[in-house]
Amino acid sequence: MKNRLTLAILSAALLSTGVHAEDQAAAPAAPTPDWTFPGSVSIANDYIFRGLTQTNTEPALQAGIEIDHASGFYVGTWGSNINWLHDYVSSVSSSLEIDLYGGYRTKIADTIGLDVGLYEYYYPGDYPKNVGYKLPYTLEGYVALSYSFVSLKYSHTFTNLFGFAGTKHSGYLDLSANYEFVPTWVLNAHIGRQKVDGFSAASYTDYKLGVTKNFDGGWSLAVAYYDTNADKAVYTFPDGTFQGRSTGVASLTKTF
Description:
Layout: H1 2-26, E1 35-36, E2 39-44, E3 48-49, E4 52-53, E5 60-69, E6 73-81, H2 84-88, E7 96-107, E8 112-122, E9 138-147, E10 150-157, E11 171-182, E12 185-195, E13 204-214, E14 219-228, E15 247-255
Antiparallel strand pairs: 1-5, 2-5, 2-15, 3-4, 5-6, 6-7, 7-8, 8-9, 9-10, 10-11, 11-12, 12-13, 13-14, 14-15
């Protein structure tokens, strides 16, 4: 009798365990949403864009948000404080950059990504009416290929480039690598070439080498070294600060 009771208990336990495991295996996975809304907020001791300071060595507060569809299409906006326009032309009051962009991302192979789109750089503010002054608003088209942790991107300008007269059809080539060498630590390397059509003295190459530490909760801390071979005669503010100088930048970012 005792052996029969023990066998009955063991059988019931095994049956119960088997049903529970089967229930877990049958539980449906959470569906992937059609729409997602990734965004970020950052603070940095300087805003460097293509190797050039946009805040004349002063801190920058930056934020952006994107609307992504499962098909691969997306639109977004991003903004930062700036002062380079006023520092070059004192009668310009613009102190804000607002970017608007949209495009399409997809995979053309298991490890190869494709990204194409349009990017508008907009600088709200008051501008002088001087003859020959060109507004800095800039529209670019871009195409990027990515493989593993490496990406290659080309941006082509359909307008004058950031206020340089006669520079339509300028281009920027960007080769970047972001390699996670140990968990949560990412090595960031970049080299870019800005070709300014119709103004060859303004063309230059820029470099970046840095590291990012990712934390739980969407936080990250990054430090990087930037340098360029930009012409000082072209990219020096009236106060004597060289816009393309070698510099270090630290930034704290929260993604959501």
